[in-house]
Structures are given as C-alpha cells and as structure tokens.
C-alpha cells in the first residue's frame, strides 16, 4: 500500500539513528508511567515490601520490552509486524488484587503465596486470548462495542476506589491513623491539578509529559515534607536477573475464570488498536494482509501475557496512546519499536530503577491514577456512545452496571456463597462483564 502523505517514515522505512532515538523517546514518555503504575497499585493494595515492589516494577519494564519487540518484529504467526507498543495493562488490576488476597489468605499472609495465585491465574487464562485470536470474526459478534464499552467503563469505575484510597495515603496511612489527612489529600490534589495544567498546554512535549511532570512535582513536595526516604536505596543490587517462576504457581478456578473474561475483552480491544494502527500507518485495514496482522497481534497479546506470568509480571496489552504518537511524529517505522523495546528491557534490568519508583508516596500516585482511571471510564463511555443507544441497549447497560457496581459497593453480599462463586463474582468487572455478554445475547441487540 502506498505510504500515507501524512507520514514521514512508513512501516518498513529505516529513519536515521538520531530521528529514530528521538521518536522512541517520545513513545517512552507516553508509556513509562502507564507501565509502572499497575505493579505499584497492586503492591500497595496487597502491602508488599519495597524489595518485592521494586522487583515487580522492574519485571514490568523488562517484559514490556520483550512484548514490544515480539509485536514489532513478528515471529512466525506471533506479532502484528506494526509499531505496536505493549505494556502492563490496567484492565487486570482489580481481579489480580482479588487473586493476591485469596492467595495470601490461604498462605497466612505470605507474599509469595499471593503472587503464585496471581501468576498461575494469569498464565492459564492467557490461553483464552490466544484461542480468540483464531476466532476473531466470531468473537466480535459476542463482544460487541456495547459490551466492550460497558466492561471498559466498569474497569475504570472499579479502579477509582483504588485511586482514591491512594489519595488518602493507602493502607500505611490507615495503620498510622493519618488516612485522609490534609497533607495527603493536598498532595494528591496538587498532582492532579498539575497534570491537568500541563495537559492543557499548547506545547505538545508538556502535554505528552503531563503525567511525568505531575508526579515529579508531587515527589519534590513529598520529599520536602519528609515523605520520601532514599536511604532504602542503599544496597540495591547492580543487576536484576529475570528468574522464571520465581514465586511458583498456584491455581484457583474462580480466579482463572474472572481473569479469562478480561482477556476476552482485551482481545477485542487489541483488534481495534491494531486496526487504528494500520490505518494511521497507511497499511490495509481489510483483506488477507490485515487479517494476518490482526490475528498475529492478538495472538502476541495473549502470548506476551503468558510470558509476563513466566517472568513474574502482570498481563500486557497494546497501548492505544502510541497510535496517537505515530500521528504526532509522522513516524510509523517498526524499527523505532526495536529501540523502545531495548530501552524498556535495559531499564528493567537495573534494580535501582524499580526501587526509585517504589518510593513514590501513595498520595502522589493516587493523584495521578485517579485521573487515569477516570479516563479509562470515560473511554468506555465513548465506546458505548459510538453505538446506537436503543431502549434495549439502555436495558443492557442498566443491568450490567447495576450488577457490576453492586458487588463492588457491597462486597459482603457474597459472604454466604460457595468459595468458587465468591472468587468468580467478587470482581465488579467480571460480574458486570458476564452480565453484559448474557444480557446482550438474550435481548438480541443487533449492531
């Protein structure tokens, strides 16, 4: 296909090294915080120690680099062969926290036991997305834009609880009796306002780096308030050696089913991201070439999440924001992806990188994630708005949101249920998502 006139470098072009590095840095700026935030949120919710948190952050960077390289390079049927950037997914945070709590409860609050349940479920359930990659035309009839929009909205809505908890200071503040203090809430508000301020700028570099700048301002103020102690960085090893299955594997059927549903929705989202990427890159968006890329990209999405579980990280997904970066830079060359992948792998190999970001105080992280999770919910609403909202569609939305939010707002409603029922439906995302799929099929909405 002829290269788009808006592109400076097409898919298979090789930009000069200086321009390649510059484009790669802009992509890194757009994704770095998004990659490290899920492990920070999960670690905070499960009260992991600094060393464990730092290691999980490092492995998230390392695996994101491997996943990006696989997507861009394409190995056999695995990979889209496009400038598709992958990173740790927000979509899985809620069920992962649930899996970790289950494992730690069974293991008498043992961190390794909690992580073994998380990685066991993520590894087995990743097969769902790999199977779906071979059945894309049929899957899209089940996971319609309405269903996908409902699930994405629920992901954002359910995660807002974690964001506001961090704004108050997290579990450590609850234990210290300072949760919701003026200092914690003021710091979170400062970060939130800073991000909004930079995001409204006409300068594209300030806009792209708004989250990074907001976190930086928050950390500077937090350090001045003695909320950050760098002494804990002493003794950090010189190199992280990725060890497969470091925490072992354990399995729970209910957790696997819940996480499997998220993989199902993620597969459909990945298809949409690959379509947008192909369009922006001046490549076909229909026909055998496109179908091969789409199936390879979704297959890689699942395979990379399996790889993440092997290397002690959380599920990966294609980052939609990088499609916007291709438009901004005019560079669609997949060779830029190799540089991005290499940088992420290198950052993941140095323990000090993970530990530095593990020191970010909860209120600082909360101010940023509150906005990010709200954006996820808004993205879901946008997907819903792209469909025809008929009376039947409103009925599907009503029952799905009601069921999903009910178990989040009143978790005790499932206390008398068998363990397998509790483990499946304790997540509002799983409950609302399954309800949306069944309700949509039952009411027979045609889209």
Tell me what you see in this structure.
- It is globular, with a radius of gyration of 21 Å.
- With 447 residues, it is mainly α.
- Strands 1-2 form a two-stranded antiparallel sheet.
- It is built from 19 helices and two strands.
- The protein is 70% helix and 1% strand.
- The model has no long low-confidence stretch (mean pLDDT 88).
- The chain has one domain (17-443).
As laid out across the biggest beta sheet, the strand order is 1-2
- The number of helical segments is 19
Strand content: under 5%
Contiguous low-pLDDT stretches (5 residues minimum) are: none
Q: Approximately how much helix is present in the residues? A: over 70%
Q: Based on CA inertia axes, which overall geometry fits? A: globular
Overall domain count: 1
Query: Count the strands?
Result: 2
Please provide the ordered H/E string of secondary-structure elements: HHEHHHHHHHHHHEHHHHHHH
Mean pLDDT: 88
The helix-and-strand class reads mainly alpha
| Radius of gyration (Å) | 21 Å
Major sheet attributes? 2 strands, antiparallel
Cα-to-Cα separation, first versus last residue: 30 Å
How would the blueprint of this fold be written?
Blueprint: H1 17-45, H2 50-73, E1 86-88, H3 93-106, H4 111-132, H5 136-142, H6 145-168, H7 170-176, H8 182-199, H9 204-208, H10 210-224, H11 253-280, H12 288-310, E2 316-318, H13 321-329, H14 334-349, H15 351-358, H16 362-385, H17 391-409, H18 419-425, H19 428-443
Antiparallel strand pairs: 1-2
Helix pairs in contact: 1-2, 1-3, 1-13, 1-14, 2-12, 2-14, 2-15, 3-4, 4-11, 4-12, 6-16, 6-17, 6-19, 8-10, 8-16, 10-16, 11-12, 11-18, 11-19, 17-19
């Amino acid at each position: 296909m002829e290269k788009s006139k808006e592109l400076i470098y097409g898919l298979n072009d090789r930009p000069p090294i200086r321009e390649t590095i510059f484009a790669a840095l802009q992509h890194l700026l757009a994704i770095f915080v998004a990659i490290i935030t899920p492990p920070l949120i999960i670690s905070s919710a499960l009260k992991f120690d600094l060393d464990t948190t730092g290691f999980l952050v490092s492995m998230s960077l390392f695996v994101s680099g491997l996943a990006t390289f696989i997507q861009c390079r394409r190995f056999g049927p695995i990979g889209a062969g496009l400038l598709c950037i992958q990173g740790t997914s927000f979509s899985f945070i809620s069920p992962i926290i649930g899996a970790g709590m289950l494992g730690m409860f069974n293991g008498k609050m043992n961190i390794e036991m909690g992580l073994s349940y998380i990685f066991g479920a993520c590894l087995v359930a990743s097969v769902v997305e790999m199977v779906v990659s071979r059945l894309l035309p049929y899957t899209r009839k089940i996971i319609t834009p309405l269903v996908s929009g409902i699930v994405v909205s629920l992901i954002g809505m359910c995660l807002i609880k974690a964001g506001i908890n961090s704004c108050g200071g997290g579990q450590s503040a609850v234990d210290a009796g300072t949760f919701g203090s003026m200092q914690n809430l003021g710091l979170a508000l400062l970060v939130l306002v800073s991000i909004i301020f930079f995001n409204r700028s006409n300068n594209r570099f300030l806009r792209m780096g708004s989250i990074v700048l907001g976190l930086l301002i928050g950390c500077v103020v937090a350090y001045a308030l003695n909320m950050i102690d760098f002494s804990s960085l002493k003794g950090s090893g010189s190199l992280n050696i990725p060890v497969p299955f470091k925490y072992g594997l354990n399995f729970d059927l209910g957790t696997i089913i819940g996480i499997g549903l998220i993989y199902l929705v993620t597969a459909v989202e990945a298809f949409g991201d690959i379509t947008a990427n192909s369009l922006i890159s001046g490549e076909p968006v229909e026909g055998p070439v496109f179908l091969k890329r789409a199936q390879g990209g979704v297959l890689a999405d699942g395979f990379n999440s399996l790889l993440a579980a092997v290397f002690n990280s959380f599920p990966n997904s294609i980052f939609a924001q990088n499609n916007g970066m291709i438009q901004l830079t005019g560079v669609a060359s997949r060779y830029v992806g190799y540089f991005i992948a290499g940088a992420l792998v290198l950052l993941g190999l140095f323990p000090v990188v993970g530990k530095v970001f593990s020191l970010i105080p909860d209120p600082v992280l909360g101010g940023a994630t509150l906005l990010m999770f709200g954006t996820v919910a808004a993205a879901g609403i946008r997907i819903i708005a792209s469909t025809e909202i008929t009376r039947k569609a409103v009925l599907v939305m009503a029952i799905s949101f009601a069921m999903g939010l009910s178990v989040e707002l009143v978790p005790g409603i499932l206390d008398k249920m068998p363990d397998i029922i509790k483990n499946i439906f304790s997540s509002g995302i799983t409950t609302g998502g399954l309800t949306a799929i069944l309700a949509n099929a039952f009411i027979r909405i045609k889209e």
